[in-house]
Fold this sequence. Notes:
Elements lengths: L15 E4 L16 E4 L1 H16 L3 H5 L4 H20 L7
Antiparallel strand pairs: 1-2
Helix pairs in contact: 1-3
Amino acid sequence: MGTCQCCGNVITDRKIVDHIHPLKYVPDEKLLSDNLWLLCYQCHNIKTMLEDQVERSTNGTNKVKHISRDWYKKRILSYRTKQRSVEHNGQTNTN
């Protein structure tokens, strides 16, 4: 319905249909509705950053194949809250 399935904001610009488990690791989940969600650009960029961090960790490729939507949502929203707090306090975000 045009809302980000992570932050709940109405998306007025282009929408991103994201694969929760990256296709490069689980190509057989390409069109499974349980592996797709609609994200705004900000949430998508944060999710991509989180994916990259997990991939670089020990056994990261296997981990990223199994991360849940809820895990991503919790961490994306936490990251966005921290960003807003930093912006509100007039500090510059270096991440």
